[in-house]
Amino acid sequence: MIFPCILSGGVGSRLWPLSRTDRPKQFLPLFGGESLFQKTCKRVNRPDFAAPIVIGSNAHRFLIGEQLNELGLEAQSILLEPVGRNTAPPALMTALIAAETDPNALILLLPSDHLIRKENLFLTAVHQAETAARAGKIVTFGIEPSEANTGYGYIKVASGSEPVRPVEAFVEKPDQDRADAFLKDGSYVWNAGIFLYAANTMIDAFKKHQPELYENIVAVMKTRHGDLDFTRLNQEAFEALDNISIDYAIMEKADNVVCAPVAPEWDDLGSWSAIWTVLDKDAQGNSGLGDARFLDSNNCLAYAERGLVSVIGLEDVMVIATTDSVLVAHKDKAQDVKTVVEQLKAEGRHEVDRHPRSYRPWGYTERINAGERFSVQSMMIKPGKRLSLQSHLHRTEHWVVVSGTLEITINGETRLLSENQSAYVPLGAQHTLHNPGKIPVRMIEVQSGTYLQEDDIRRHPETSQNP
């Protein structure tokens, strides 16, 4: 049995404006209605794998839960990181969790933002690497390069035909001349950031090569506590951990590292031009997601989150239109999207961080429009779910039910609203919403007042609300 650990942190800023801080690239449903996170979860949803350990950001907790629920899957644990601390802490945290059950348990550490088209080939490589991992080796999976790409780190692998071979060197992202030489040499593979190891092997590696970090992570893991379906860690203790990758912390120092070269049609999908390469295309090389049209255009990408995008007379151009932002760029400039994001972040623009749709334990909200003294959003409340009892000091609210049956409580008075019925919540009134039915409730909420931010919510004890 292999314990998969799925790393779901990261932002993917080069996929802006679709990828945001609160909805990064691994959760975007770009691939047949599924996200890369969901594809990663399905990849290890097999009898020879245990339920996954998911390590992700506190900000994405409800998104993680929602996407697992859509697949009908349940994680062994969803461990929430208060802040990002790269890949070394998760590698050890997972080993410590698995060792509680079996010190010899094998762990497969997987990023959640990779696309692997030949999954059976990849899984075969994993199983071929089991013997080495059980013998105390740390196995890294190297992708046989299809081009001289400068965007990846490289691994120099010993010559031979064995499925698992010694690592001779780790190499940082090269310039173009070195990448060309690596491809011609034939002994270099891309570093995919995927690892297989026994729990006690990784624990021993940290004790030897990162003793202080080991002690600090062990201390952090002692602060674990449950919160709904999630596991939380002490924020202050976690923030004090070194921000370091598993490559720097362990892989480049250990003498028991081996590599399993594999060619499973793997893509990191770190930019819109990379997305274009894996999508279906028309006869002119154009790819469209959503309602997109092309005329006299070649090798273009168009994405329409809502509404229509038309591309006329262009070549090698990307047009990405979301509900609040539009990106137009040449494919050769795909990497420069990150620069735009950094500029917007410095200006404090919310388009970098907040996606219009925000997931909650009870469903989601989606921003429609906002202006001075008003905000309009749609809401979906799942069957059986209830919002907390709350009130506001600076705003009133109007609710209109679009579909389903909604139970509302305002100042202790409870009643039902059906389709096309509405209710008004006065300033300061204690109120809550509940979906007592079997289908989702969809509704529109209009907020009006002098201050409309989320910190105007005052929550009240649940015992004070009607049953």
Automatic annotation (TrEMBL):
Write down the chemical reaction(s) this protein catalyses: alpha-D-mannose 1-phosphate + GTP + H(+) = GDP-alpha-D-mannose + diphosphate
Nucleotidyl transferase domain segment(s):
5-284
GO biological process assignments: GDP-mannose biosynthetic process; polysaccharide biosynthetic process
Specify the domain of life of the species encoding this protein.
Answer: Bacteria
Catalytic activity, EC: 2.7.7.13
**Which InterPro entries has this protein been placed in?**
GMPP_N, Man1P_GuaTrfase/Man6P_Isoase, Man6P_isomerase-2_C, ManC/GMP-like_b-helix, Mannose-6P_isomerase_type2, NTP_transferase_dom, Nucleotide-diphossugar_trans, RmlC-like_jellyroll
Give all residue intervals belonging to the MannoseP isomerase/GMP-like beta-helix domain.
Answer: 295-344
Protein name according to UniProt: mannose-1-phosphate guanylyltransferase
User: To which species is this protein native?
Assistant: Roseibium aggregatum
Which terms in the Gene Ontology molecular function aspect does this entry carry? GTP binding; mannose-1-phosphate guanylyltransferase (GTP) activity
Gene that codes for this? algA
The text of the family note is: Belongs to the mannose-6-phosphate isomerase type 2 family.
UniProt-listed Gene3D superfamilies: Jelly Rolls, Spore Coat Polysaccharide Biosynthesis Protein SpsA, Chain A
- What stretches pass through the bilayer? none
Q: Name one Pfam family in it.
A: NTP_transferase
Q: Which UniProt keywords apply?
A: GTP-binding, Nucleotide-binding, Nucleotidyltransferase, Transferase
Question: Where does the record place the Mannose-6-phosphate isomerase type II C-terminal domain?
Answer: 348-459
Keyword rRNA-binding carried by entry: no
